[in-house]
Structure formats: C-alpha cells, structure tokens
Amino acid sequence: MPKMWAGRTEGITEKIADVFNSSIHVDRRMYRQDIEGSAAHAAMLGEAGIIDAASAEKIIEGLRSIRADLDSGALTVDPNAEDIHMFVEQILTDRIGDAGKKLHTARSRNDQVALDARLCLRQECDAILEKLRMLALTITDKAEMYKDAVMPGYTHLQRAQPVTFGHHLLAYAMMLDRDKGRIEDCRRRMNLSPIGACALAGTTYPVLREMEAEKLGFDGICLNSMDAVSDRDFCVELASCISILMMHLSRFSEELVLWSSWEFRFIELADSYTTGSSIMPQKKNPDMAELVRGKTGRVYGNLMQLLTMLKGLPLAYNKDMQEDKESIFDSCDTVKACLDIMAGMVGSMTACTENMKRAAQAGFINATDLADYLVRKGMPFRSAYKICGEIVNTCMRGGWVLETLPLEKYKEFSELFTEDLYASIDIETCVKKRTSTGGPGEESIQEQIAYIRSLFCV
To answer: Cα separation of 314 and 79, whole Å?
Structure first.
C-alpha cells in the first residue's frame, strides 16, 4: 500500500525496510499527546483562517473520537503503521474524509514529533517528581522514627564517628531534594513549543504559534525553527537527571544490601521485598535492592546512547533522532519502577537498633570525642590526636573499649584525664553533643526533617 508521503517516490518500500523504518512500537505510547497536539493545531488553523472553521471542528471531533476509542480499547494501534502520527492521521481521514487531509497543513512530522516528545516527557517529569516525593517522605518518616538510634558513621567503609540512623537516612532525602530541583529545571527548559517550525524553515502560512503553545500549556515557543526540530537537549538533560537520581538510589541500595547482611544486621527488610534461594533454605536475598543497583547501569547506557546518537548530526532533522524515544522512555519507566520499589522497601524495613549501637561501641568511634575532651582541657589538638591513637592501640591489645579502659590506664597517657571523661565519651552523649547545623544532634535532625517536609509535602 502506498504511503501517505508518496509523491516524489511511489511510496512503496520493501517489507524489511518498513519494519526497519517503523517506530510505532515505541511512539505508540504518545498517542494521547499526538492527538492533543493535533487538536490544538486544528484549532489554530481554524482561528488563523488557514482552514475553514467547519473543517477545524470536524477534525477536532474526529480526533476526540479516536482518543476515546484508543483509551477504551475499541480501537488498537496498527503495529504495521509507520509511526503514531501517520496512524492517527490515517484513521482520522478514514473517519471524516477530506477534512482529515487538512490537518497536516503548516506542520511537518519533524515539529510534530518534537512536540509530542516534549508533551510526553513533560508528563513523565511530573510522574517522576510525584514518585520521588513519596520516597523522600517515606525516608523522612523513617528517619524521624529512628532519629535517636545510634549507629556508626563510616568513611572508607571503616567505622568513623557516631551518628544516628535517622541522620544517615536524611542524607538520602537531601540527595532527592537535589534530584527534584534538577528535574524541575529540566521540565522548565523543556516547556517550549516547537510546533510551527515545520520541517526546518517555518511556513508561509500565517500560523499563530504562541496561541498553539498556550493552548498546550507551554511557557513559550522555540525561537529558531532549525533548533526547534533538531533539539533533543531535553531528552539528554532528563536522561542525565534520571542517571544522577538512579546513582543515588543505587548508593542507597548498596547500603540496604550491606545493612541487611549477617555481617552488619543493622536492618531487616520485609519478606515482601526479598526473595529466597532455590537451594539454600536459610537465605533471604535483598533482590529488589540489587535490581535497583543493577538497573542503574541500564539508565547510564541510555544516556550514553542519546549523547552518541546526537554528537555527529548536522542540522536540522535526521532520521537518527528517531532513536531518542526508546532510550528516554526506558529511563523514565525504569526510574519510576525503582522509586516505587524503594518507597515500599524503605517504608517496610525495620532497624535493628541494638546491633547498631553495639557496632558503634565496638568501633572506637568516640575517639575524636576523647581527643576533644583533652583539647577542652587545654591540650593542642595534634597532641591530643596522637595520645588518643595510642590509647586506642592499648585498648585493642588489652581487649578494652574506650568506655571500659580503667582511669589509671588513661592517666598513664595524661594527667588531664579525670573521672568525668566517661560521661564525655558515652556514645549517645557524643551524638547529642554534635549540635552543629546539619549534624546528628536532636535539634539539627528536627530541622532537617522540617526542611524535607516543607519541600515535599503538598
């Protein structure tokens, strides 16, 4: 069957070429956006007097019927169609006759697909932001629940200083705050209308680009017609934002995997977010967290595909750009699934607070507080640092921790040590004393919780 673009050629291609050229399996998900954009375009054509008002209304009604039938399942997308744009236009023409052939006046598939992609990804941004919001609030609720649960903080995966589980969790909420800002910025830059740019050089018709843009909820129009049809920065930027977000989810997942292991036993993941082994009956595997971690590489690959696809393209539109949607749609679908899983997994996990506290006590993570104790009594920090390192070494050789080392042993290192040192190096006291803004102290934690909730509560 000849194509709708037949003319310069006969419009008859080999079956293998049809399959290779078709994008319907990917862009079919944009049928609502394609119909929305076409309805706005028809309204503009009628308003501008480019087509008669009766034809414009007939087109809009026809498009509404197609949308309703696709939504209900009464009509299904033809998998043999070239793309969603040609499918919708063909069905429209079949239903309303020659009036349907007027729809494509003053536009090209080049600006049409750019429009559909922006409309679709704008909605994806909103969906991602909502799921991100739910995860951030879930983390914050869990942080408030465990704001007093002392645990070791780590550097180099070595026990470093005492924090609380709530404080540790809030670090991830802060990452999500930055992710939120990046996606919002991306959405704002995305929200310009390319329609009216046509193939690349605009049109001779008196189109009302601003009217069409406003009808579709855009903040304005793309000001250069060549840039309008060849720009896919919004795809790359969103893929980049999602990649950073997935990196944060992957880091969090890595900690969930570690914390739920027998070596740590800091948390217990709910059975509903773990799996068993086919051969080892004792196993409870953190597969959901591992999959989030694994899917991060997939999202990175999508970003690299987009960058590589675009890097050598001359202006304006090239068919290479058809490859944009599969990657960015996959990234959107992947991150939404991961956000849902993380929210459920974090919301249902429980902290093994006694194990956390024992790990904190056994790791000499109050050594800095011991040094600070000497500093407050007048000793220079570097001297205090050296003495406390020697004390830790003594404890390790003798089987003590700092809280159990006898006072007479302390006095062998400095006469500045007195009985009050034990209160100063109590693990829970060490946390409470960290009152600097952003730290694990109670007031700071409450400020962090309030900050996150002010951003994400609606």
So the answer is: 31
Cα–Cα dist 336/130, whole Å: 9
Half-sphere exposure of 53 (CA within 13 A, CB side): 1
Domains annotated on the chain, with CATH: 15-105 (1.10.275.10), 110-139+167-358 (1.20.200.10), 359-456 (1.10.40.30)
Of the listed ranges 42-56, 162-176, 292-306, 361-375, the least confidently predicted one is: 361-375
The secondary structure of 193-225 as a DSSP string is E-TT-TTTT--SS---HHHHHHHTT-SEE-S-H
Q: Is 275 helix (H, G, I), strand (E, B) or coil?
A: strand
Q: How far is CA 271 from the centre of its chain?
A: 26
pLDDT tens-digit readout, 72-105: 999 999 999 999 999 999 999 999 999 999 999 9
Decide: 85 and 117 in contact? Cβ < 8 Å. no
pTM, whole model, 2 decimals?
A: 0.92
**Residues designated as active site:** 156, 277
* Averaged pLDDT for residues 321-339: 97
CB 33 within 8 A of CB 193: no
